[in-house]
Design a protein that fits this description.
Oligomer: single chain
CATH topology of the largest domain: Nucleotidyltransferase, domain 5
Helix content: 40-55%
Largest sheet: 8 strands, mixed
Shape: extended
Distance between the termini: 90 Å
Number of helices: 20
CATH architecture of the largest domain: 2-Layer Sandwich
Strand content: 15-25%
Radius of gyration: 35 Å
Number of strands: 21
């Protein structure tokens, strides 16, 4: 069917709740959605493309027909939608893999037993602790036990590898007892493994109780060396426990969900708490969501799919922002749990810290998938929230003016892409429309020229043909006011802010025409803005110094009749220094590319003759 035919069919749908199934030309289901009023929702797909993000436009371009199922209520439609998505796995729905499996901790039965994390239980005679539903928990438990009881994690086999090398770094930072070098007896090693197994089986409080009893017994028997070892182990367990308290929450049972986006991709992180303590962490990378994705809608789809594949629903779900159909999702999840499920959106306090922790985990996972660093994504996200931007600023342009009392008036433009300097797009400008010092007029001229180039090159989508997501000017409200008319003239809706410095020439705040926004409370955003301001200042002042050098250069060689910029450059390239040019005779000067006899004679005369008398213009310092 054509779009016109599909819209005509959609307009005949009833204004009742239901589920719609979009199909391609092969009659395959490519998208499933639910609607409170089928006619209104489905007809939107076949209206103006301008109202749709890129992902929806691609989906609609592949639709050849659609089907629908009427439901008694929107909640019934949601339940049916979840069931059909799980069954058909449509291409354009968010699909999460249910890759949860049981995990185990393996304790080998060798003469030197080892601890390891395993995804499967094997019939190899070893002892297996578990099963654990959370592989994240099992991995962390093994890591903690190895560190607390100073057991090796290198994979060496003992006694085969004893005394075959020097201890590794873990020994020197007191995280391994170095059995590879005989630093611990076989008996003490086996006792350490047994204590680690007790720790894994009984938890921190149980293992501390057992070790405390053994420590007191050793002290009574005057075995102070053993008592000291047990004391150190108890201290290590308590230290690990204190670290875990950082991720404790006053809410007995809840899930915390945060999302991080960049370009076409997103990553959701879910932190799961039970009995007030973190027991699981999951990350989900979602590709191709579209650069202008509707984040509340994406959150709704994710939560819907997540609790379709997870049976364990908590009574409280903490999310990092607005979620589409939140009340409907709450009703659906309440039915699954058998009691009320609430969504909360913290703005401060303990819950907000946990939300930020989840967001950092999402940023780390997304950054790893792109070969980047998590703090770069976090900084951009913080900056977007701080400035109230509609989306994360991936492409940032920054401008600064540099001059000396109005002379050699120039500007620099730097670009930060994905939180990093993008030097291929750096540009330099020489102010042309006036002479003298006027930073506001200079900034206006530079941005006018920049956007003139945009409309000439916008079809390329590169360099000046690309619009920034954010413009930062090195200056305050005056610079912003000078540039605002340029954006209005061209009809461009680009966020525009100035970067304000304090008395020590350090970044203090960002400003628009009406207010200043302090940024020092947002560490990552502050570091990013400070870096941008320092970089654009460095680039602009570097160009200004170069321009001044050129002016000094032009005041000597280019003052000679017949010697322009190109011949001056050729002379300096050939002779390397001005002193050697002054010492050269006419024949030597004629050897330079582009020089002829009249030009060579002019240079020679300039440095050797004045009023018919031979004089040497080379000063005494240069002759030395």
């Amino acid at each position: 069917m054509t779009i016109k035919e599909l819209r005509a069919k959609a307009m005949k749908l009833p204004l009742t709740p239901g589920v719609y199934l979009m199909k391609n030309i092969k009659n395959e289901i490519i998208y499933i959605g639910k609607a409170k009023a089928l006619k209104n929702r489905v007809s939107q797909y076949f209206g103006s493309e301008k109202n749709h993000p890129e992902k929806v436009r691609r989906m609609v371009s592949n639709v050849d027909d659609f089907d629908y199922i009427l439901c008694g209520s929107e909640n019934e439609a949601l339940v049916l939608e979840c069931s059909l998505i799980k069954q058909h796995k449509p291409k354009y729905n968010i699909l999460l893999k249910d890759d949860k499996g049981y995990s185990y901790i393996r304790v080998s039965k060798d003469s030197y037993p080892t601890l390891s994390f395993e995804m499967q239980k094997s019939d190899d005679g070893a002892e297996y602790l578990g099963p654990y539903m959370s592989s994240w928990y099992a991995k962390n438990a093994v890591d903690e036990a190895l560190k607390i009881f100073k057991l090796p994690s290198c994979g060496k086999k003992f006694p085969r590898d004893i005394n075959k090398g020097r201890p590794c770094l873990n020994y020197y930072i007191k995280q391994c007892s170095a059995p590879c070098c005989g630093k611990i007896s076989h008996k003490d090693y086996c006792e350490s493994v047994a204590s680690a197994v007790d720790f894994l089986k009984k938890g921190d409080s149980g293992s501390v109780k057992i070790m405390t009893e053994k420590m007191n017994e050793a002290a009574e028997n005057l075995d102070f060396e053993l008592a000291a070892k047990l004391r150190d182990r108890i201290t290590a367990v308590k230290r690990i426990t204190e670290k875990q308290k950082v991720v404790e929450t006053g809410v007995p049972k809840q899930d915390v969900i945060s999302v991080m986006t960049e370009g076409n991709d997103a990553c959701f992180a879910v932190l799961r708490f039970d009995d007030g303590r973190l027991y699981d962490k999951e990350d989900f990378l979602i590709k191709d969501i579209g650069e202008q994705a509707d984040i509340p809608s994406i959150r709704r789809e994710f939560i819907q799919q997540y609790y379709t594949i997870r049976k364990n629903v908590p009574p409280i779900i903490t999310v990092d922002g607005e979620t589409e159909n939140e009340e409907l999702l709450s009703d659906w999840l309440s039915q699954k749990l058998g009691r009320k499920v609430r969504f909360i959106h913290p703005q401060r306090g303990e819950q907000m810290k946990i939300v930020e922790m989840a967001k950092h985990n999402a940023a780390e996972k997304l950054a790893q998938s792109k070969g980047r660093l998590w703090h770069e994504l976090t900084a951009l996200d913080e900056l977007a929230k701080l400035l109230g931007l509609p989306k994360t600023p991936v492409y940032i342009e920054s401008y600064d003016i540099s001059n000396l009392a109005g002379s050699e008036n120039v500007a620099g433009m730097v670009v930060f892409k994905n939180g990093r300097p993008y030097k291929d797009s750096y540009r330099r400008f020489k102010i042309k429309s006036f002479s003298g010092q006027d930073d506001y007029a200079s900034m206006n001229e530079v941005l006018t020229r920049r956007f003139d180039e945009y409309f000439k090159n916008k079809d390329s989508g590169e360099g000046f043909g690309q619009l920034p997501d954010l413009i930062l000017l090195d200056g305050g409200k005056g610079q912003v006011s000078a540039v605002r008319p340029v954006l209005e003239k061209y009809g461009l809706d680009i966020p525009l802010f100035g970067m304000v410095k304090d008395g020590s020439h350090r970044t203090r705040a960002v400003t628009d025409e009406g207010r200043e926004i302090a940024i020092n409370s947002k560490r990552q955003a502050f570091t990013l803005v400070s870096t941008i301001q320092e970089e654009v200042h460095r680039f602009a002042i570097g160009y200004h110094r170069l321009a001044r050098k050129k002016k000094t250069f032009s005041s000597s060689l280019t003052n000679i009749d017949g010697i322009g910029t190109e011949r001056a450059k050729a002379l300096l390239s050939y002779f390397k220094t001005l002193k050697r040019i002054k010492e050269a005779d006419i024949e030597e000067l004629m050897n330079v590319r582009g020089m002829n006899r009249p030009a060579a004679e002019a240079v020679y005369r300039y440095y050797h003759y004045d009023d018919g008398r031979i004089i040497n213009r080379i000063n005494d310092d240069e002759n030395k």
